[in-house]
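Review box. Two proteins, two foldings.
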Amino acid sequence: MWAIVKKELKNYFLSPIGYVYIGIFLLTCSLFFYLDIFQYASTDFANMFGSSVTVLTFIVPILTMRMFAEERKNGTEQILLTSPKSITQIVLGKFFAAALVVIMSTLLTLMYFGILSYFGEPHIASSLVAILGFSLLSIAYVSFGMFASSITENQIVAAVISVGFFLLSWFLPNMITKAGTFSLMYAFYGSFMNGTISITNTVLLLSFTVMFILFTMIVIQKRKLVK
């Protein structure tokens, strides 16, 4: 599995994809850091994540759209599926590689915390909780983006499916009240942005991640049987 993780990480950083993701993410974080914190002389570091989370809807698909769709389109999927690696190792390897990129990007935001600490005294505990929640939400997005990539050979289609689903998760709770209980946005804003770690919301985010990893394994396994 770790061989696949290394291979995928090399693909991310030997191509523009990894740098584009990190660049756009940090650029938007810089913008929201200025607009939501620096401009108002605020010490609430979590505010930056509250705004930056909207960007995940559009940049995570950039990272995930090629994961399986590219293999299928280029005809290298058959080589992958007939390799000694199991379906579980292949899927987890690709997932962990993308998850590492988004987590590394999130950890880079600590430089903004350093800047804020120089000018004020931000609350460390609430800041760490916001980072944790943002990381959990990011990897949940990665898991769905990977699933979307596994069901099509077109990277653009995979990206559109992911963006559409993420947008739906934003607006569905406003249309159906009960849907808010299962909303990723509700889980993030409902506790992590308030500086509290909710077991229920943490389990929701982790369960969502595991569910779509399993769905991806099922899709790839069925394709392997067909091959």
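Next protein.
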Amino acid sequence: MNLQTYLRAGHPGLAVISSEEVRAEAEIASACAALGRSLHAWSSTEGLVDTGEGRVTPCPDPLEALQQLDGLFAADSSSEPQHVVLLRDLQLHLDQSDPMLVRRIKDTLRVAKAHGHAIILLGCRLKLPAELEHEFTHIDFNLPGPEQLGVVLDGIAKSANLKDLPDELREAALQSALGLTTTEAENAFALSVVETSGIDPVVIAREKARTLKRNGLVEVVEASTSLEDIGGLDQLKAWLDRRAGAFSTEARSYGLPAPKGLLIVGIPGTGKSLTAKATAGAFGLPLLRLDMGRVFGGIVGQSEANLRSVIQTAEAIAPCVLWIDEIEKGFSGSQSSGSTDGGTSSRVFGSFLSWMQEKTKAVFVVATANDVSKLPPEFLRKGRFDEMFFVDLPDSRERAAIWDIVIAKYGRKPTDFDTVVLARACEQFTGAEIEAVFIDALHEAFAEGAEPSERKHIVTGIGNTVPLANLMDGQIAALRHWAKGRAREAGASATNPSSAPRRRRIDPRAN
């Protein structure tokens, strides 16, 4: 937070948006001490407090407090230090649309600027009236990094009488806590001590996953899927394999920039979401899942604040993989949002594009889309993503590989089934439909008290299934036409001699 720079530049109105009130106030106090400024703080419960001398002026009403500031600012002599006044939770009063409060704030800012003082708004959200939007400068307050979290961890370890933590354990614990506030991290560290009598990164990571899921915007997903769990998509998997080391220290020393992301478009059920999960496993990075629908809130300014929170969380955890499933549903209305939602979707979309283009943190975005026609053109241009892949229906060789993986996933041996024959029998099926057929066969066999039979249960299930490709053949043809020349094929090339059906043996324990 470059607060000192803004104070030295003479900005009279600043706004710090953070739910970490204690840490934010500590940094504000540190900046004031470094610049020789006196710090005053106001809240509706405490009134106006001179933090240096401890004087308290009771004034629960913000209008009353601003009147006190006018006197404080105007009466100050040149020999006394300049003042910084911290106003807590003023947003709650601004929500009431009090014109006298707005006018008083503008008048107080004018006096503050004339005498070199500053007012800082602090709260977990901020949506200023139009009359004040250009009066305050927003200052980003990032989530704590390893250094700040290390102070919290050392305090917990000391209070629990733990001996010096090994460097590897300490680093793993801090990495597991990235993305949490200092309070949330302190709670996770303390829980680890209670449960394990020590610091356990697994417990901390579990609590982080629960915390982020409770917040509702992003959630930590366990990346237990590998590229070996995907049947086919050889070109896409090879592309990911070649970039697996791009987040390492050696890559930075080589001068290689961190990969930005990947857009996967294609037919529903062909493994796009599975690939997103496998990407995190291939890179050895934590996986965050973002539901774009949750970003958009009903309160004015909430959607933009939610997106900033998501970006802060992802960048705090970086390096990581951010997975956005069916992204076209979140941004499909951005071009017409001016007449439907006051431009909220358009602003959120623009902010997201700017971040994608300019981000320097190692956040690899994997976005999937079923209907690419709903995505705005500027979203698809080079620079937003490193590459765009099109996932078509699996061919015969890929379907055979999918059968192997599905059979092994449910504890059976692929060698007990002729997966090449099964692959030919389920032409036009997606991977999801193949798995659904096998699950149905398991149900039928279980009801009969037997093991699934290839001819009796599986082939019958195939015959009873109408593949999605038959229902949406027109949409699939349009999607293939669009992808030609615009996106790379995710599967093996049709001219590749290795595309012929072949048997593949998979250890069931791999899943």
